[in-house]
């Protein structure tokens, strides 16, 4: 890569050594399959600890047990089909993946890794394909506007990824190895350790696949669709990924605690293209948090971190350009327990984006300063959440956002929720300053969302239905009159999301469905649907244990979508089924088998790009 590219070899060797030498910790294995626990604590919805059941915002949690149970081999595989989420992928492993939440653009969702904001400052996109699932402990998905808590880009929602961390005293090692279709093979090892007040952990993950031919253009065509090729390249498009996660901390006492973390993922990606057909990528997150329990009712924390996003492009081995961005951030937050069930939060955020590239930008750095406040209160059967935030940005000036939510419990496990929120999206460096294609006069996109939900919690099942409508003004789109991006369009997204979790005849069911109606509100494409969003989507995961066996099925279905703004290229809907099985060989050793896309369904989520066909994979996991 342009910067010094570390091999990770020394760190991997250390992790292997420590995990191998670590003494085994024997304990009764936890159940492999369990229903969703609404009492599980989350932090993303309010920036404070609350439970899924108490959160007024629609929240979904994917924990480590669910990740391993799904046998997902990538983050896009884990997220696809979930309520409110549409994915568009340009091929298999390592290929460009964009995510749309509640119909919002792919750069209108905030993504955090251990509290550090992710994303490229140039494109505004998050490299979902380069975040290894083996390093993830849990994911919290919060749908709806959250700019009043997280600032720019939180129009569709917030997704926070937490890397692995164990809390048990002593050492807990683990390892896995696997292989399957298209020359895929992988291995990884890791451990967590705690002794007294100190703790430390590490995980390494390696993946390699020969891939398949991602572009399905069979005859030469000038820049065929999204493939950007003038003639076919019938070769395999492989991918290699090395990833390492380190974390550690120390509890100085009951009041002071320090936690540090670092995650690095390096990728080598082959694809089809005229301008470039190979890239080396780097995703890195480094950060830390110092927390202080100032008293029974006061908590203060200071967090800081950096996200690095780099990509070096090559065309048949010849350098074809490089981009690199650093996103530095810091947050000071104080929480005050005013009374039982009533919390007041106040804080300040700082964010700085920097660009380094062989492409010249008129401006290559900008900063944002913000102050925010939030009140949460419970009054009998009523719950209230109110938040406000003021941002001051170097490029697009000052902006104020707010949010308001109310909930009412009315017996029998039922609760209704209503909410309103405003949000905005800052223009990216490419939209503002890319030579000959940027417009430095752009302002932020602005949105308002209203939502209404009803939820029911029973002894064996929990259900939730949420409806929403979002209006976006000053949508950034290409202006033919200027030949540049401009704030010229409006958009409307409305829809509903249904989720259900529970047990049926011994089978544990985790199901969701979404309905989405989008409309471009102005310009030549007024009345058209926004591209690459499926109008209907559904996902169901069904699992059951039979002694040493654990069996499961994942079904994902999505309706038709348009691939372009003009609504001339239609991609039909599809449904796929993944079959999976586990066999517990010993309390520490488990063999997993998965048959993905079992019926070999041929489909596309981006025009001209093949999705994987039928694939099999075997994984052996060791976790004493």
In brief:
This protein has 624 residues and is mainly beta. It has helices spanning 9-21, 64-70, 75-79, 147-150, 429-433, and strands at residues 41-42, 50-51, 59-63, 85-89, 97-101, 109-113, 116-117, 136-143, 157-163, 170-180, 184-195, 198-212, 237-251, 256-270, 278-293, 298-315, 318-339, 342-357, 365-379, 382-393, 397-409, 414-425, 445-457, 461-479, 484-504, 507-520, 536-546, 549-558, 561-562, 570-571, 574-586, 589-596, 615-622. The chain has a single domain, classed as Maltoporin, Chain A, CATH 2.40.170.
Total of helices = 5
How many domains? 1
Globally, the shape reads: globular
**Relevant CATH superfamily:** TonB-dependent receptor, beta-barrel domain
* Percent range of helical residues: under 10%
Low-confidence stretches: 2-35
The CA-CA distance between the termini, in Å, is: 38 Å
The number of strands is: 33
- Residue-averaged pLDDT: 89
CATH fold call? Maltoporin, Chain A
Text of the CATH class: Mainly Beta
CATH architecture: Beta Barrel
**How large is the share of residues in beta strands?**
over 45%
Largest sheet: 22 strands, antiparallel, barrel
Structural class: mainly beta
Query: What integer value in Å does the Rg equal?
Result: 24 Å
């Amino acid at each position: 890569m342009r910067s010094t590219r570390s091999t990770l070899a020394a760190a991997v060797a250390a992790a292997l050594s420590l995990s191998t030498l670590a003494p085994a910790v024997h304990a009764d294995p936890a159940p492999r399959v369990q229903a969703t626990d609404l009492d599980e604590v989350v932090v993303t919805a309010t920036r404070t600890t609350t439970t899924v059941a108490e959160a007024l915002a629609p929240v979904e949690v994917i924990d480590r047990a669910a990740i391993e149970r799904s046998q997902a081999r990538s983050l896009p595989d884990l997220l696809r089909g979930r309520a409110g989420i549409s994915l568009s992928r340009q091929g298999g492993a390592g290929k460009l993946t964009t995510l749309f939440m509640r119909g919002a653009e792919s750069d209108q969702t905030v993504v955090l890794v251990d509290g550090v904001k992710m994303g490229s400052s140039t494109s505004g996109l998050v490299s979902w394909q380069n975040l290894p699932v083996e390093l993830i402990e849990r994911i919290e998905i919060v749908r709806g506007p959250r700019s009043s808590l997280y600032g720019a880009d939180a129009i569709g929602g917030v997704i926070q990824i937490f890397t692995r961390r164990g809390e048990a005293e002593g050492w807990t090692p683990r390892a896995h190895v696997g292989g399957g279709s298209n020359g895929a093979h992988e291995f990884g090892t890791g451990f967590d350790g705690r002794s007294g007040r100190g703790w430390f952990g590490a995980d390494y993950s390696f993946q390699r696949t020969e891939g398949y031919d991602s572009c399905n253009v069979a005859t030469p065509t000038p820049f065929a669709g999204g493939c950007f090729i003038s003639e076919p390249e019938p070769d395999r498009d492989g991918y290699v990924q090395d990833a390492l996660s380190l974390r550690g901390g120390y509890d100085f006492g009951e009041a002071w605690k320090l936690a540090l973390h670092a995650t690095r993922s390096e990728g080598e990606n082959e694809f089809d293209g005229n301008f470039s057909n190979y890239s080396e990528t780097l995703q890195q997150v480094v950060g830390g948090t110092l927390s202080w329990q100032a008293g029974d009712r006061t908590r203060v924390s200071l967090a800081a971190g950096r996200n690095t996003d780099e990509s070096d492009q090559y065309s048949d081995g010849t350098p074809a350009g490089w981009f690199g961005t650093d996103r530095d951030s810091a947050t000071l937050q104080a929480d005050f327990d005013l009374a039982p069930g009533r919390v007041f939060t106040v804080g300040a955020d700082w964010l700085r984006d920097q660009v380094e590239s062989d492409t010249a930008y008129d401006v290559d750095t900008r900063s944002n300063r913000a102050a925010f406040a939030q009140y949460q209160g419970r009054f009998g059967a009523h719950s209230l959440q109110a938040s406000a935030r003021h941002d001051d940005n170097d490029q697009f000036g000052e902006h104020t956002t707010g949010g308001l939510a109310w909930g009412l419990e009315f017996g029998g496990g039922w609760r209704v929720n209503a909410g309103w929120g405003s949000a905005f999206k800052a223009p990216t460096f490419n939209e503002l300053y890319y030579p000959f294609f940027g417009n430095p006069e752009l302002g932020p996109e602005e949105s308002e969302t209203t939502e209404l939900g009803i939820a029911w919690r029973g002894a064996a099942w929990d259900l939730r239905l949420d409806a929403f409508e979002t209006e976006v003004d000053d949508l950034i789109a290409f202006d033919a009159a200027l030949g540049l991006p401009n704030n010229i369009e409006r958009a409307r997204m409305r829809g509903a999301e249904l989720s259900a979790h529970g047990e049926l005849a011994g089978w544990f069911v985790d199901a969701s469905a979404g309905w989405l109606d989008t409309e471009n509100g102005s310009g030549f494409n007024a009345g058209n649907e926004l591209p690459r969003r499926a109008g209907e989507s559904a996902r169901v995961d069904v699992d059951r244990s039979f002694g040493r066996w654990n069996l499961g099925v994942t079904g994902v279905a999505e309706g038709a979508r348009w691939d372009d703004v003009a609504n001339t290229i239609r991609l039909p809907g599809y449904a796929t089924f993944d079959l999976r099985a586990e066999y517990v060989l010993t309390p520490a050793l488990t063999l997993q088998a998965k048959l993905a896309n079992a019926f070999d369904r041929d489909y596309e989520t981006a025009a001209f790009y093949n999705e994987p066909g039928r694939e099999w994979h075997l994984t052996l996991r060791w976790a004493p």
